């Protein structure tokens, strides 16, 4: 065999290896190392992967200096993005669809939740004789913030009973101690919120749960399919201009998701801030066990999940026309898949 033939064969082998292992290519440095993240109700389990990745230093490990601003609800976090005071939002995937219906293009880059983890409950004290959803007409319903995912889920549940959003009053109560106080003091008649708040109210006998998306089974019953929940979303232009930054963000979150797959209750308690426990460690852990399967495993958003979200939104939001929404522009799995390969998630 001639040296030329050998060199050709060696070149062919190297070329084949390069094609077969694109994920092994070195990741470039983030274009933007300081990243402002907006979130609506950071202490909720809905955003636990964000807190875990922050507390364990996974953003720093990716070369990022993140500043996280916490708002009363997802709608306020979205406003921060649209007002250019945040680069990225840790929020509900359905906002990407809602905004596209208004000709604003934002995109999910990594999925944290594969179920909304939102439950709706009626106050046992305020509505003692509750028989069905019709009893909520004219009532005050607490949500994290008007326009947030808790508000959207409530609208969906009520719409199935023929109740319009205008036939109830929505009150923003946040996702922490204020939400507990609002229901217990009688300021609201029902609540649609996340955990640990809902489990705490449920276990103390303050509410009767009437709709539950804290499990995959419950989510399927409410939405008729898988429903993507918390994600990192940002302007489509930001994704195009800062691919390495987006990859670093996805890496940090998927690293956190991987950690959560094997974390025990004591690991969670040691990692989250004390204030997140709302003064009741045992109930906080009971809440975690209830929502654990709702946390995503690998950061990837399922295609059928995007379709479920569009169908759900269109059922109660007249401005959302399914035929005018391009779902492919509402999310990308490119970053999540690379992060999944990197961390074997």
TrEMBL record:
Matching InterPro entries: TAT_signal (IPR006311)
Gene3D superfamilies given in the database record: Periplasmic binding protein-like II
Family membership: Belongs to the bacterial solute-binding protein SsuA/TauA family.
Subcellular location: Periplasm
GO biological process: alkanesulfonate transmembrane transport
Protein name in UniProt: ABC transporter substrate-binding protein
Pfam families: NMT1_2
Keywords: Signal
GO CC terms, sorted: periplasmic space
Signal peptide: 1-28
């Amino acid at each position: 065999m001639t040296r030329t033939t050998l060199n050709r064969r060696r070149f062919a082998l190297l070329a084949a290896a390069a094609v077969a292992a694109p994920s092994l290519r070195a990741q470039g440095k983030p274009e933007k190392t300081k990243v402002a993240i907006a979130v609506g109700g950071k202490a909720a389990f809905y955003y636990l992967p964000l807190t875990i990745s922050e507390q364990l230093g996974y953003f720093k490990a990716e070369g990022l200096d993140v500043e996280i601003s916490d708002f009363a609800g997802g709608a306020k976090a979205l406003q921060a993005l649209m007002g250019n005071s945040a680069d990225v939002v840790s929020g509900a995937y359905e906002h990407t669809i809602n905004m596209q219906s208004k000709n604003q293009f934002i995109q999910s880059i990594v999925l944290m939740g594969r179920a909304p983890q939102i439950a709706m409950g009626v106050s046992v004290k305020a509505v003692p004789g509750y028989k069905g959803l019709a009893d909520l007409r004219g009532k005050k319903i607490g949500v994290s913030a008007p326009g947030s995912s808790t508000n959207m889920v409530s609208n969906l549940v009520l719409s199935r009973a023929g109740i319009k959003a205008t036939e109830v009053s929505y009150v923003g109560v946040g996702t922490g101690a204020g939400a507990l106080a609002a229901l217990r003091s009688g300021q609201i008649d029902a609540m649609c919120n996340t955990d640990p708040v809902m489990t705490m109210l449920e276990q103390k006998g303050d509410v009767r749960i009437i709709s539950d998306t804290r499990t995959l089974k419950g989510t399927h019953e409410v939405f008729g399919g898988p429903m993507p929940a918390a994600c990192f979303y940002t302007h489509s232009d930001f994704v195009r201009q800062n691919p390495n930054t987006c990859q670093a963000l996805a890496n940090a979150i998927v690293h956190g998701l991987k950690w959560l797959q094997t974390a025990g209750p004591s690991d969670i308690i040691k990692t989250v801030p004390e204030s997140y426990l709302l003064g009741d460690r045992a109930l906080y852990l009971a809440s975690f066990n209830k929502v654990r399967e709702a946390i995503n495993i690998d950061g990837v958003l399922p295609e059928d999940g995007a379709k479920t979200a569009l169908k759900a939104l269109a059922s109660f939001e007249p401005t959302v026309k399914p035929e005018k929404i391009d779902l492919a522009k509402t999310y990308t799995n490119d970053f999540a898949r690379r992060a999944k390969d990197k961390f074997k998630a």
